[in-house]
Amino acid sequence: QVQLVESGGGLVQPGGSLRLSCSASKFSLDYYAVGWFRQAPGKEREGVSCISSSDGNTNYADSVKGRFTISRDNAKNTVYLQMNSLKPEDTAVYYCATGPRCSLLDEYDYWGQGTQVTVSS
After folding, report:
1. Mean pLDDT split into 10-residue runs, the chain, 121 residues
2. In sequence order, what are the residues at sequence separation of 6 or more whose Cβ sits closer than 8 angstroms to the Cβ of residue 70?
């Protein structure tokens, strides 16, 4: 069974950084686009960033451009989301997902269980 596992969430002060990881079991992430999404309490899930499988093209939501960086390490079968200059409004549960193409829309096939990110002083 395909399984995605997110890790790296936690509590951080405003202006701080976190790196989220998305690891896969029983399949290789190399062949899939990977997206990061987040859902804050009372809000709809939104696309944060994605990376394509073939050429490594990336895309970011306007709210995180210049602060977040997505990358993949195929040797470790892991995709990362480096989050810098975090703001309280970044607080949410973060999910990774795999699908056929890089998209900030909910067009993905498999999803992880999520990791909580809380930005607070």
Report:
1. 92 98 91 96 97 92 98 95 98 96 95 97 96
2. 34, 36, 49, 50, 51, 58, 60, 79, 80, 81, 82
